[in-house]
Amino acid sequence: MTDTNLPAPHAANLPIEKYVLAVTGLVGFVVLWYASVKWLPIDAFNRLPDPLAVIVEWTSPDPDYGISIFTADYYTHIFYSTYRALSAFVLAVVLGVPLGIFMGWKKSVHNYAYSLLGLLRPVPPLAWVPIAILLFPGVELAVIFVTFLVAFFATTMNTLVGVKAIPEDYFRAAACFGASDRDILRDIVIPGAMPSIFTGLQIAMGAAWFSLAAGEMIAAQYGLGFIIWEAYNLIQYPTIVIGMATLGLVGYVSSMLVRWVGKRLMVWHEQKLGMAG
Length: 277
What we know:
The chain is an all-alpha fold. It has helices at residues 14-38, 43-46, 51-58, 72-105, 107-120, 125-135, 139-164, 168-176, 181-219, 224-233, 237-265, 267-276.
């Protein structure tokens, strides 16, 4: 008799295949980048640095343009960007998650706040920079505020969607059993919206890094966005790519940490899916 509970023969190879495909994609991108810079007869591509030049500059103990993994300034810029992004993200979580929960749960809060959020959410982060500089003393708070806004909207709207997706029958059943608002919030609203909340937090973290770079290009003296803009003004093209690559790496790690925390806090959700299967 065949044991139907045995895993599929190829199941053990899936993680390896995943990493192989990921590495293949990265290598393919680097090869395409090198070919475009070196062999395509297009001036726009010829002005770009090739991957080898970027790697040499990035790993040089004595970089030509002053930024590499061996320079203290490089880590100073990473620290400032990380501090700003995390500060904005924490503020977005503290304010956006409760607002999204109550907007999805209470119609009065939804009617009061949704129109305003819908009006402000499409405004791009760069448009907020002059207002932020006028509102807040110093550059630091202005950049954090611009970064916070984008993460706040992503967090609030995904939380709202998560609460709205909870079946109405759950609320009716809770009311029939005499559950209080606190019981409904604790046992229905928050657990039911949790998957969407953490999806929103991952989006918010990525959005925070996106808007942070824009703010740092205009209103900062330190940070990865500042590196990119300063390198452009000084015609230091390899440093531009170093700043972009570092921004992508740090942003990816930040989103991965949010995803890891979300999985740990949603064990109940995974168990539910396993039981349903």
